[in-house]
Write a structure and sequence with these properties.
Chain A has ten helices and 19 strands. Chain A has 330 residues and is an alpha/beta fold. The first copy, chain A, folds into two domains: 169 residues, Medium-chain alcohol dehydrogenases, catalytic domain (Quinone Oxidoreductase, Chain A, domain 1), CATH 3.90.180.10; 132 residues, Medium-chain alcohol dehydrogenases, catalytic domain (Quinone Oxidoreductase, Chain A, domain 1, Alpha-Beta Complex). In chain A, α5 links the parallel β12 and β13. The radius of gyration of chain A is 20 Å and the shape is globular.
């Protein structure tokens, strides 16, 4: 089969679209013929983390397709089932944090940027019926991360207001869709006028230019919840918009990791600051149910064939997308 | 009546033990003959915050005594009742943060370092029967702060482990007693060998020299909960001891307010960082019930008459105490 493989040099220079062998499913495993896959920022990190001294690695965390082989002891799944893959390996039940042996599909295990994947049956879920394969293929990692950050951690309620700095990436776009689906008020920020417009079209109640004075843009209205993934560049501004007793959830830090906090302000305001990343298999099922209930469809920025991986990676690297970048796999 | 009054110069130099008038209780107020009062760090802050251009102020937040006059419309309280005072003004029900008009007794309202206080009846609670006046008098602010930080915010469970940096102050000492009362494991730190020994006598499972390597002292065991009040000097070390998905509650920052955080570590570890200060009237009643159920008695470091306020303030300023500093009022 053909796959996008990382070997040798770090970064994009180490990627190739080449022939790899497929594995026969063992007990409690299935083999899925992939119809679509989705890109995540993690795919870029993996190109740096996967060592040139290790065997070639099929990258990719997100995928959807059709079961075409079933190992022994597999229940509830059969050949021909249309499925979506949970990329979280080893985090089954809702717990405050993943177990020590938790991994994400695509490093160290072979991932989804391939014609086939052989994977534990418990990571394979029925595809929501209202989604095309290309839509299901971009869902897993980002929608799971969004679900946990917004609901499990942020505990957002319909009558609350959410501030979402840096709209555009896959997770933030899902958070906007999920929050609007339950009727919350959502304010977003972006440096890009196009992304602000796209967010308003998706239902954002206000879209603020990142370079503007946020307090002024919000008429000094404080928010109940902030979900932060921009990091050092916006964290101070984000915290300044939070009401007393409000919550800030962080799941990313794309502009830098180091922030300063004033402890006295923090405890007088009785803030809650919660870290979040990925989610459990239980949350993956809850997320699929939520998507189904609200008939949510992912926003797809652009679709590439696997063979044009180089262009797709450049687009991801330049953060020009609004929503998800997909691979169609024939 | 006699009272400790701040006027004129900032700091200790502006304090005097002098004659003040008492107020007659209006509707929904009572007058309490104070038998004991307790000192808090807040009393030192008040000496800086109370402006020399304002009228003389009776300071003090903690007190206990006997009702000796009752205003109109007061229910459930009568002359002769032995009572303890909740110093939180305007925060009645449990909410994520106090209302905007929340104040603490002793600034701007006259406080408890006096022979009498006239105060809203809803701030006056029946004294737990197992406590002497001197014990009840030191309880309110610190035990309320401890209760909210440990239970409402920290949500400690019997099978969990708590790290408590900087044992010795009133709040930390109550936290140690409360956590041991429910059967939790408690590790404390202090620079003072005497305070470490005192903490062990109070039930601490381990007492670590603040200057030691904490990880090593704990054999690399991570904890479920940290309650921080030391601030800049210990925050990094405190966070480093926390297990994945663990919680750090901050209610103070005695060594400095500014801390740095690594966002990536924070969200990968799925930490919870919660600010806490004081508590509601509902929590005050819960705290009294808890004290009663577990027959907890405050640790009193030293007792002074009101007239020796100067020595008492110096002791508090030098942070030499273990537990609470009290005023006996005759």
């Amino acid at each position: 089969m053909k796959a996008i493989v990382h070997e040798g040099k770090n970064g994009l220079a180490g990627l190739a679209y080449k022939e790899m062998t497929t594995a026969k499913p063992k007990a409690n495993e299935v083999r899925v013929q992939l119809k679509a896959a989705g890109m995540n920022h993690r795919d870029l990190f993996v190109l740096e983390r996967h060592s040139s001294s290790e065997p070639p690695l099929i990258i990719g965390s997100d995928g959807a397709g059709i079961i075409e082989a079933v190992g022994d002891d597999v229940k509830d799944l059969q050949i021909g089932d249309e499925v979506i893959i949970n990329p979280g390996l080893g985090w089954d039940e809702n717990t405050p944090a993943p177990p020590d042996h938790f991994e994400i599909l695509g490093l160290p295990d072979h991932g989804t940027f391939a014609e086939y994947i052989t994977i534990a049956a418990k990571n394979v879920f029925k595809k929501p019926k209202h989604l095309q394969f290309i839509e299901a293929g971009v869902l897993p990692l980002a929608a799971l991360t969004a679900y946990r950050a917004l609901f499990t951690r942020g505990n957002i309620q319909a009558n609350q207001t959410l501030l979402l700095p840096g709209i555009g990436g896959g997770v933030a776009t899902f958070i906007l869709q999920f929050a609007k689906a339950i009727g919350a008020t959502v304010y977003v920020t972006s440096r890009s006028a196009e992304k602000r417009q796209a967010a308003l079209s998706l239902g954002a109640d206000r879209a603020i230019d990142s370079n503007a004075d946020w307090s002024q843009a919000l008429n000094n209205e404080k928010v109940d919840l902030v979900i932060e993934s921009v990091g050092a560049a916006t964290f101070d501004q984000s915290l300044a918009q939070l009401r007393k007793g409000g919550t800030i959830v962080a799941f990313g830090s794309s502009t830098g990791d180091t922030i300063q906090l004033n402890l006295r302000d923090f405890f007088y305001e009785q803030y809650n600051f919660l870290g979040s990343t990925m989610g459990s298999a239980e949350e993956f099922q809850e997320m699929l149910d939520f998507i189904d209930t609200h008939q949510i469809k992912p926003i797809i920025d652009e679709v590439y064939p696997l063979s044009e991986f180089h262009d797709a990676f450049l687009k991801l690297q330049n953060a020009k997308q609004f929503g998800k970048i997909a691979f169609q796999i024939d």
